[in-house]
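Action item from last meeting closed. Structure (236 res):
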């Protein structure tokens, strides 16, 4: 089934459906940790309000108590809504899309080794695409790395029209770097663009998992979660 472009009705096959993030084992861990959290929080509060200093410094401890309760409330509030998390069910990516994968680099600040790891992963993404590095310094080392990895290189360094003091092409800003590339290349060449920081290393299946969401005509922008590489080193 497909989207009816005239009526705007979305078929079941192209509508993004959300499903629970927690699996059975996740729920078990969550509730076990919740019990421990409640016990630890209760023990802390009991000991806090039994401090001998309450008689001597009631105002100061009251202010501190308010701060502590706000911090606890914020942390516990985020914790208790975790079971309500939902994730979009994957949709298959349509073949033949024009996709650009882009990252940036400021060679005077960010190390080349950082970019090399990211660039290797970007080029290896499983959906057909073109990879770009937006180089603020027009560095020869970065050009060589792009050639080595099969990526394209872009720099606005020698384009004063893209080095303005204010506005969409403001110099020394990431958005100015991106806007210069979009103006010169991105808007005309690609239907979809995905952007990564130079220290991000996406999974190989990132594009094939994300592009399908755009089959839903109500979707215009997708923000993927950022996950630390050592996430699976601990059950927590």
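Sequence:
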């Amino acid at each position: 089934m497909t989207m009816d472009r005239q009526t705007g009705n979305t078929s079941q096959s192209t509508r993004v459906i959300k499903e629970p993030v927690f699996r059975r084992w996740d729920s078990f861990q969550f509730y076990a940790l919740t019990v421990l959290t409640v016990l630890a929080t209760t023990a802390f509060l009991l000991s806090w309000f039994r401090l001998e200093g309450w008689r001597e410094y009631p105002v100061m401890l009251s202010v501190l108590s308010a701060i502590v309760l706000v911090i606890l409330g914020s942390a516990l509030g985020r914790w208790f809504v975790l079971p309500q998390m939902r994730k979009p069910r994957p949709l298959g990516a349509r073949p033949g899309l024009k996709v650009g994968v882009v990252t940036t680099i400021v060679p005077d600040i960010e190390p080349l080794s950082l970019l090399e790891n990211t660039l290797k992963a970007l080029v290896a993404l499983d959906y057909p695409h073109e990879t770009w590095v937006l180089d603020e310094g027009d560095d020869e080392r970065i050009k060589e790395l792009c050639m080595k990895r099969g990526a394209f290189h872009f720099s606005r360094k020698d384009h004063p029209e893209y080095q303005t003091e204010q506005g969409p092409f403001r110099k020394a800003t990431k958005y100015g770097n991106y806007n210069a590339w979009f103006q010169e290349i991105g808007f005309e060449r690609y239907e979809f663009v995905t952007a990564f920081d130079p220290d991000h290393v996406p999974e190989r299946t990132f594009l094939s998992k994300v592009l399908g969401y755009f089959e839903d005509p109500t979707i215009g922008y997708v923000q993927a979660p950022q996950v630390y590489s050592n996430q699976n080193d601990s059950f927590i």
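Note appended to the action item: The chain has six helices and six strands.
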